[in-house]
C-alpha cells in the first residue's frame, strides 16, 4: 500500500522494522564497514535497547546481521547503550559501551569479537569482569555515558572521554588505560561549558589543517586541530567546536571562546543527533554518522511500525578556506546511485517567480547540485537591509526581502500546496557587508497535522568570488541540504502527503523583491540502495 510505505526511504540506512536511535561503534574491519545502532527489537518506540548490526562494502548498500549485543547481564539489563570502537595497532578490536544496570546505574562495559578472524564480526563477547567503569564520586549515576573511541598518548597509554554534567555544566571526563579493563580517572576534564547540561555522545578527533585526508584518532602535533562534539540532552542538538588539545594536561581549548561547544556551531541546523565519527582506514577519511529522529507523533510511528533514519554518512574535513568550521559532505559512494541527469544553465529567475524544473518522473529520489548568482547591479543598488533577519522568523520562505529568499522548492506538489523551500537569504549591513543565511522551511511540508513543521537555518560563510551553492539529497521523507560545500547543513525530516513518488516536483524560486538570480543546476535521479535483511535476503 503506497500510502503506508511512502515514508520509507530508498538510500538512507534504516532497519526493516522497529525503533532505531544512535549510531554505535562504526568502523572498517577486514573489508567491511560495520554499523551498529541503538535498536528496540520489540517496537517502534525507544526501549529494550540492544545493538543492531549491519555491514557494507561502500557505506551505501547494507546487509542487516543478527543483533550484536542484547541486554542479558546485570550490568546492561536496562539497555545496551551507546559506545565506540577502537582498533588497536596490533589489529585487535575493542568495544566500550554504556550499560544501564539492573539498578539503572550508568556504567561502562568492555566487549570484543568472539572470533576476530570473522570479517562480519557476528558474535560478541562481554568481558566477564564488567563493568570496567562506574560513576566516579560527584557524578550522578544517571549522568555517565557514551565512551568515545580511544586515542594514544606519547607514552603509549590509551585515553577515552565520557560525557557528563555537574549541576548545569556539561563536562567530558578523561580516563587513561593500558588494557581497557583498568582505568584511571585523570584530574580535571577535557572540557566543560557552563549552562549546557548533560553532554551525550561526546566525540573527540583530530582534523588536518594542511590536507584533505582524515586522521587517525590518535594523531596529534602540528598541522592538526581537534574537534570536540557534544550532543546536548537539553536541546537535542549536536554542537561542535575547533580547538587545540594539550596532551600534557589532557585539556582541550577552543580556538575562539565565542565559538565554544554549544555557543557556536552545529553539525546540522535541522534534525540530527547523537552523531559519531570514525577514521576510515581504507579510504583515509573521517566519516560522520548521525541519527535522524522522527518529527511525527509516537502514534504515527507505532502505526507505521518503525522510527528513525540515519543520515547518509558524511566525510568531515577542516575548512581551510574559512579556518573556522568543518565541511561535511555525503560520502562519495552515494554518487554511485546517480542515474539519469538533467542540466540547467544560467536560468534567470525574476523577483517573485517560481519556475518548475522538469526532471522526469522519479522525483522523490534526487541528488541536486545548484549554484546561484545574485544580480550585481541589485547588490550594489540595495541599501542596508534585513540586518535582524533570522531563518526561524514566522513566514519563512514567504517573507520577502530585497536580496532573498531564493533557492529550490523540493518535495512540492503541482499546486505547491505542499513544498519544502531550501534557500539562501542575503542581508546587507553597514559598509555593504553581506551576510548570508541558509534555511529550510518545513512549515508547508505536509498536510498532516500531527507533525512538527519548524523553519531551520543559520548563517553560512560565502567568501569573495564564491557563488551561492547548495547540494540537496531528496529521499521521500528526508531532505539533506549542504550549503557552500558543507559549511552549513540542514536535515529536514518531513512527511508530505501529496508530494509523493512521481507527484513530487521541484521548482526554482526567487522571492527577493530587488534582484534577479541566475541559477545553474545539475540534477540526478537516484537509484535505491540495497538494504536487506538477514537471514532471508542475505542467503541468496
Ligand atoms: N542514547 C543512548 C544513550 C545516549 C542517548 C541510549 C543519546 O547512551 O546518551 O539509547 O541519544
TrEMBL record:
Instruction: Look up keyword DNA-binding and say if it applies.
Output: no
Q: Which UniProt keywords apply?
A: Glycoprotein, Glycosidase, Hydrolase, Membrane, Transmembrane, Transmembrane helix, Vacuole
Q: Name one GO molecular function term.
A: beta-fructofuranosidase activity
Q: Name the top EC class.
A: hydrolase
Q: Which biological processes are named by the entry's GO terms?
A: carbohydrate metabolic process
Every Glycosyl hydrolase family 32 C-terminal domain range: 333-525
Gene Ontology, cellular component aspect: vacuolar lumen
UniProt subcellular location: Vacuole lumen
Does the record's keyword annotation contain Membrane?
yes
Give the primary localization class: other
**Enzyme Commission number:** 3.2.1.26
Q: Which residues form the Glycosyl hydrolase family 32 N-terminal domain?
A: 12-330
User: What's this protein's family per the entry?
Assistant: Belongs to the glycosyl hydrolase 32 family.
> What is this protein's record name?
beta-fructofuranosidase
Portion held of the full protein: 106 to 645 of 645
Amino acid at each position: 500500500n503506497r500510502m503506508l510505505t511512502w515514508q520509507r526511504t530508498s538510500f538512507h540506512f534504516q532497519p526493516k522494522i522497529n525503533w532505531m536511535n544512535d549510531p554505535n561503534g562504526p568502523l572498517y574491519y577486514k573489508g567491511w564497514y560495520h554499523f551498529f545502532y541503538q535498536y528496540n527489537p520489540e517496537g517502534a518506540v525507544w526501549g529494550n535497547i540492544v545493538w543492531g548490526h549491519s555491514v557494507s562494502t561502500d557505506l551505501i548498500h547494507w546487509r542487516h546481521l543478527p543483533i550484536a549485543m542484547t541486554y542479558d547481564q546485570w550490568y546492561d539489563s536496562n539497555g545496551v547503550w551507546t559506545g565506540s570502537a577502537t582498533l588497536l595497532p596490533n589489529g585487535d578490536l575493542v568495544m566500550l559501551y554504556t550499560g544501564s544496570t539492573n539498578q539503572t546505574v550508568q556504567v561502562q562495559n568492555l566487549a570484543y569479537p568472539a572470533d576476530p578472524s570473522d570479517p562480519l564480526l557476528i558474535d560478541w563477547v562481554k568481558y566477564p569482569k564488567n563493568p570496567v567503569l562506574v560513576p566516579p564520586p560527584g557524578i550522578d549515576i544517571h549522568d555517565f555515558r557514551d565512551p568515545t573511541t580511544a586515542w594514544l598518548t606519547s607514552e603509549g597509554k590509551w585515553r577515552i572521554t565520557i560525557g557528563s554534567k555537574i549541576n548545569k555544566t556539561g563536562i567530558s571526563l578523561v580516563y587513561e588505560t593500558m588494557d581497557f579493563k583498568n582505568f584511571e580517572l585523570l584530574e580535571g576534564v577535557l572540557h566543560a561549558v557552563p549552562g549546557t547540561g548533560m553532554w551525550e555522545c561526546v566525540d573527540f578527533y583530530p582534523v588536518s589543517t594542511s590536507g584533505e585526508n582524515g586522521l587517525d584518532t590518535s594523531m596529534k602535533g602540528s598541522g592538526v586541530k581537534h574537534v570536540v562534539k557534544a550532543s546536548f540532552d537539553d536541546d537535542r542538538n549536536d554542537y561542535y567546536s575547533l580547538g587545540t588539545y594539550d596532551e600534557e594536561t589532557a585539556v582541550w581549548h577552543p580556538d575562539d571562546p565565542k565559538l565554544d561547544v554549544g555557543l557556536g556551531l552545529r553539525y546540522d541546523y535541522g534534525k540530527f543527533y547523537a552523531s559519531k565519527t570514525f577514521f576510515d582506514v581504507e579510504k583515509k577519511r573521517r566519516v560522520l554518522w548521525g541519527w535522524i529522529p522522527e518529527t511525527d507523533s509516537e502514534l504515527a510511528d507505532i502505526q507505521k511500525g518503525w522510527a528513525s533514519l540515519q543520515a547518509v554518512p558524511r566525510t568531515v574535513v577542516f575548512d581551510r578556506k574559512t579556518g573556522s568550521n568543518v565541511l561535511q559532505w555525503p560520502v562519495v559512494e552515494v554518487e554511485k546511485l546517480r542515474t539519469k541527469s538533467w542540466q540547467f544553465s544560467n536560468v534567470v529567475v525574476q523577483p517573485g517567480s517560481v519556475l518548475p524544473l522538469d526532471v522526469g518522473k522519479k522525483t522523490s529520489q534526487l541528488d541536486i547540485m545548484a549554484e546561484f548568482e545574485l544580480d550585481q547591479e541589485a547588490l550594489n543598488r540595495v541599501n542596508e537591509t534585513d540586518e535582524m533577519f533570522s531563518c526561524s522568523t514566522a513566514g519563512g520562505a514567504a517573507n520577502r526581502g530585497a536580496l532573498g529568499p531564493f533557492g529550490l522548492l523540493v518535495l512540492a506538489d503541482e499546486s505547491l500546496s505542499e513544498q519544502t523551500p531550501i534557500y539562501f537569504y542575503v542581508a546587507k549591513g553597514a559598509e555593504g557587508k553581506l551576510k548570508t543565511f541558509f534555511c529550510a522551511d518545513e512549515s508547508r511540508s505536509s498536510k498532516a497535522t500531527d507533525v512538527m513543521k519548524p523553519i531551520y537555518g543559520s548563517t553560512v560563510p560565502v567568501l569573495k568570488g564564491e557563488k551561492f551553492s547548495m547540494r540537496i539529497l531528496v529521499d521521500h521523507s528526508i531532505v539533506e541540504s549542504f550549503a557552500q560545500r558543507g559549511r552549513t547543513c540542514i536535515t529536514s525530516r518531513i512527511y508530505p502527503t501529496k508530494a509523493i513518488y512521481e507527484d513530487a516536483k521541484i521548482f526554482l524560486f526567487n522571492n527577493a523583491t530587488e534582484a534577479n538570480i541566475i541559477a545553474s543546476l545539475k540534477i540526478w535521479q537516484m537509484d535505491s540502495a540495497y538494504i536487506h535483511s538477514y537471514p532471508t535476503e542475505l542467503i541468496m
